Amino acid sequence: MQVPFRLLNALRLHTEIGLVAAMAVAMATFSATPLVLAPLAAEFEVSTATAALFSAAQLGSFVVGSWTAGRVVDPSRRLFVISLVTLSAANVVAAFVGSFVVLVVTRSVSGLALGVLTWLAYSQVFGDDERTGDITTVGPLTAVVSTPIIGVLLELGDVRAVFLVLAGVSLVPLVWVSTIVVPDRTPAGRNRAVRAALVVIAALNIATLGGSAVFVFMGAIAADRYGMSALVISLAFSANALVSIPAARFRGRRRFAGGYFALTGVCAVISTQADQTAVLWVVLCVWGVAFWMAVPGSYTLLAERSRFP
Q1: Do 256 and 127 share a structural domain?
Q2: Shared-domain flag, residues 35 and 172
Q3: What angle do CA 50, 225, 237 make, to 5 degrees?
Q4: pLDDT tens digits for 69-119?
Q5: 216, exposed or middle or buried, with CB in 10 Å at 0-12, 13-18, 19+?
Q6: N or C: which end of the chain has fewer CB within 10 A?
Q7: 50/162 same-domain check
Q8: pTM value surpassing 0.70
Q9: Closest by alpha carbon to 282, among 228, 243, 247?
Q10: Is 135 exposed, middle or buried (0-12, 13-18, 19+ CB in 10 A)?
Q11: Domain that holds residue 285
Q12: 23 and 139 co-located in one domain
């Protein structure tokens, strides 16, 4: 019973609790995606492929927010608060909207807010390995807890209840509004990218986006092909997150990042071809370990292949 409290105390030693809470909210929102995909398709009477547009809109806006925020705004407490309130409002609207098009718009707004929050968090811990590790690890830790809760909500209520809970959770980090440090914006010269580094970046993007696309549909696959309930599916995703934690915190040298990415591809193929529930559980667990061994390993490879990492 004391493990969560000890973990929270450990995080407080290195990282502002508001930043950690904001990243937990982001992970809870994204971990809900594969679980609510099939219910949303049924709710709005659209195909699963069409329903996935809400995920694409959210992820696309997230990328825009996280990549461009640093170019147009400075980190600030005000931006932190605005992003959280916007995220909560988007979830409230999503809970009551009657049009699928409007739902997609709300998820786009949600993704933008999540992107800004993620950029804010990493801008405050950049260069500090301990604090960066705290921010990175809170993702799988949150998924372990949030996915079963979402599964229970879907079993007891409907998909709209999930959005209402996310709306409330989005306001929790406001209790610990962090002191945001504005980084030095002294202009610095840029170095031309090394061709080998560009290849690594391209491969990393392709592998990550491809894996994410399959993972989003995993909830629908588990329900349609394996006949799993929302609660059982959520527990499988929780297991995926749980086994990912040691891989995310691994301190040794991560060799063969490409091999780990290839393993995630094998897992994706098996998940769509097998017909045993136990196989899906194993695949999800192996996928989690392989992914979190691959991504940091890819960044290490990128640094080795870059002239100015």
Answers
A1: no
A2: yes
A3: 80
A4: 888 888 888 999 999 999 999 999 999 999 999 999 999 999 999 999 988
A5: buried
A6: N
A7: yes
A8: yes
A9: 243
A10: buried
A11: 195-303
A12: yes
Give the tokens for residue 70: 């640093």
Residue 309 is predicted with a pLDDT of 45
Asked if residue 170 and residue 119 are part of one domain, the reply reads yes
128: left (phi over 0), alpha (psi -120 to 50) or beta: beta
pLDDT in tens, 2-50: 444 444 554 444 667 888 889 899 989 998 998 999 899 999 999 988 9
Round to whole Å and give the CA distance between 114 and 63: 9
**Predicted confidence (pLDDT) per residue in 241-274, tens digit:** 888 888 877 767 767 777 888 898 898 888 878 7
Compute CA distances 31 → 13, 15, 188, 213, 236, whole Å: 27, 23, 38, 13, 12
What is 168-182 written as a DSSP string?
A: HHTTGGGGG---PPP
Between the alpha carbon of residue 271 and those of residues 151, 243, 283, the distances in Å are: 20, 18, 7
Residue 85, domain CATH:
1.20.1250.20
